[in-house]
Amino acid sequence: MVTIVGVRFRSGGKVYYFDPKDSNPRMGDRVIVETARGLECGRVVLGSHQIPEKQVVQPLREIIRMATEKDIAREESNRVKEKEAYRICQEKIRELHLDMKLIQAEYSFDNKKLLFYFTADGRVDFRELVRELAAVFKTRIELRQIGVRDETKLLGGIGICGRPLCCHTYLSNFAPVSIKMAKEQNLSLNPAKISGVCGRLMCCLKNEQETYEYLNKNLPGLGDIVQVQDGPQGIVQSVNVLKQTVRVLIEEGDDKEMQEHPVEELTLVMKHRKGTAWRASAEKEETRPSQEEGRSGRGEETRRRNSQEERPENRKEEKPGRDRNRGRSRGKDRDREQKGEPEQRERRRSRGKNRSRNRNRDKGTEEEKQAGKGDGE
């Protein structure tokens, strides 16, 4: 077991583990730690506690000291400088006509690095922009391209539920969300209703997925045939996952009645077949034996014929001489094509000579015609 402290540097950012060493920080305290980007000022979000060593990414860095009032004032001044850096970078992007959207500027605690977050549809050549920004701020410049979900996480906002966005408040990592989760929760597949501010599927679908998977195990599917306790059978029309109730359509002669029962009072009789109605499939199963009985005579005759043809004694034996003769004839044709008989050679030569004579004759006639035209002119 290892003793750690959880520190977060931005609201909604990832939580990093540090070794508290001799200090004893509490929830909400500011601390100065050393990261890959240099010295940073963060806020403690997880108090000192022990976790298994496998969950710690080595090497585990230590907390340098508790943040003083001077450190907090410096952190606040950096937030003011970031707004000015954001404005200047926007002007440079317009001057260079770069197809990119600037999201946020961020100073490191020791002012040795200035980061700019942006979004773009494709790759952007921002080398000239980096040179001009470095000449203005006299520090190391770094541009980082992010996605639309990261953009919403940095900027924040209000969701359709009326509360601040989960990714901006407490979510440290993005969980994968699929359309299957919306189907499992019986939600409308309208993109406007299941998408968040970022345009992607809402992260809260993942939070409720395990609950819906557990509740749906006991519920029948739409179209299933169920038996009501001490009552008739019916077809499932709709289910209420949270209430664990089922609406069943019961048919008694020409009368139809819709009833709602708890899932404990129902017994599954037959699952719904996809693509066909359960009643049509049941009628086919009932009529299938009578149809087969009417066609039994024809079916038996065809089976007998097929069985007799498949027997080895009834198969027609092929003469081996035929295959040999075929192979020999093919070989002779190949030899003739390659070597060629003397008669065929003479015919080809005579054809070639006749063609050359006809060509020379045509050329002579054309020359005579042109000469006659010249004399006439």
Q: Could you explain how this protein is built, in words?
A:
This protein is an alpha+beta fold. Among the domains are: 2-67, no CATH class; 75-146, K homology (KH) domain (GMP Synthetase, Chain A, domain 3), CATH 3.30.300; 154-214, no CATH class; 219-271, Roll (SH3 type barrels), CATH 2.30.30.140. The protein is built from twelve helices and 13 strands. It has helices at residues 69-96, 127-137, 148-155, 166-169, 179-184, 191-194, 204-207, 209-216, 278-294, 296-310, 320-339, 342-376; strands spanning 2-8, 15-18, 30-35, 38-51, 63-66, 101-107, 113-119, 140-145, 225-228, 233-240, 245-252, 255-262, 266-270. The strands form three sheets. A five-stranded antiparallel β-sheet has the order 2-1-4-3-5. A five-stranded antiparallel β-sheet has the order 12-11-10-9-13, with no helix packed on it. The radius of gyration is 42 Å and the shape is flat.
Question: Which properties best describe this structure?
Answer:
single chain, 377 residues, alpha+beta, GMP Synthetase, Chain A, domain 3, 12 helices, disordered C terminus
Task: Set down the secondary structure blueprint.
Elements: E1 2-8, E2 15-18, E3 30-35, E4 38-51, E5 63-66, H1 69-96, E6 101-107, E7 113-119, H2 127-137, E8 140-145, H3 148-155, H4 166-169, H5 179-184, H6 191-194, H7 204-207, H8 209-216, E9 225-228, E10 233-240, E11 245-252, E12 255-262, E13 266-270, H9 278-294, H10 296-310, H11 320-339, H12 342-376
Parallel strand pairs: 7-8
Antiparallel strand pairs: 1-2, 1-4, 3-4, 3-5, 6-7, 9-10, 9-13, 10-11, 11-12
Helix pairs in contact: 1-2
